[in-house]
Please model this.
Amino acid sequence: MADGSSITKESAAPASSSTAVTHRNSEPLSSEKGQTTITDGVVTKVAGLAAREVPGVYELGGSTARAIGNVTQKVGLGDARTQGVSVEVGQREAAVDLTVIIEYGESIPQVAEAVRNQVIKRVEGITGLSVTEVNITVNDLYFPGDDVEQPPAPPRVA
Amino acid sequence: MPERVQRPASGRVLLARLAEQVIAAQDAVSTTAGRDGRWVTADGDRLIDGVVVAATGRRLDVELHVVAEWPPEPLQQLAARLRGGLERSASNSGLSDQLGDVDVAIHDVRERGDTGAVR
Model:
């Protein structure tokens, strides 16, 4: 399937308790005994790992991102777990954009909804941030035979 | 070669050792020295990774730089547990009057077996 076939939905999370967790690039959570800082990379990683927990998700990231990711991972600069994940983190809220590849045969709307729910559950539960939206782009479908290397075609002439 | 003089550890180093022990005693969390190894405390010939202790006035503020294991507990709880553990250890060691703020920075979340560097 060509890139660009996408389903994008927005889902407002239920208003959660306003836990005053803040992040690097802003003020950290303060208490009289010290501060707690959760870096933006942690939020990105949590969202990526949460999405991968959902059955039917084959991989995250577009074809270009994955190709570049393969190279950067080999030289130790990339991390597959953050591929295809973009987050915007504020003082109390976060918005998540995901690009996913779904296994052929799965219901795309159902998998997308399950991904959205899982990301909201994990990010809110682990970081205390309220997730305002999870935008999902289904970038491709995975067929089980895609990974199998095709044998070379037999010669057509003797 | 001159014989090396053994000096008693300072309160700063003692607190760093306690912090190291507190983190090591917890499940699903480990320390990180950072990409360029800046979050460390020198303890004689070795470095204590992920712990920075610095004097502020008459007290010693402690920074704990950690990585949580997936799936982590709520990170605020993790930070509170580390902070509380260090306060108890310092109290038991007679160092509570020296302990200042305990800042906890969570830099990454990793799956078991993932040893990638913190970026």
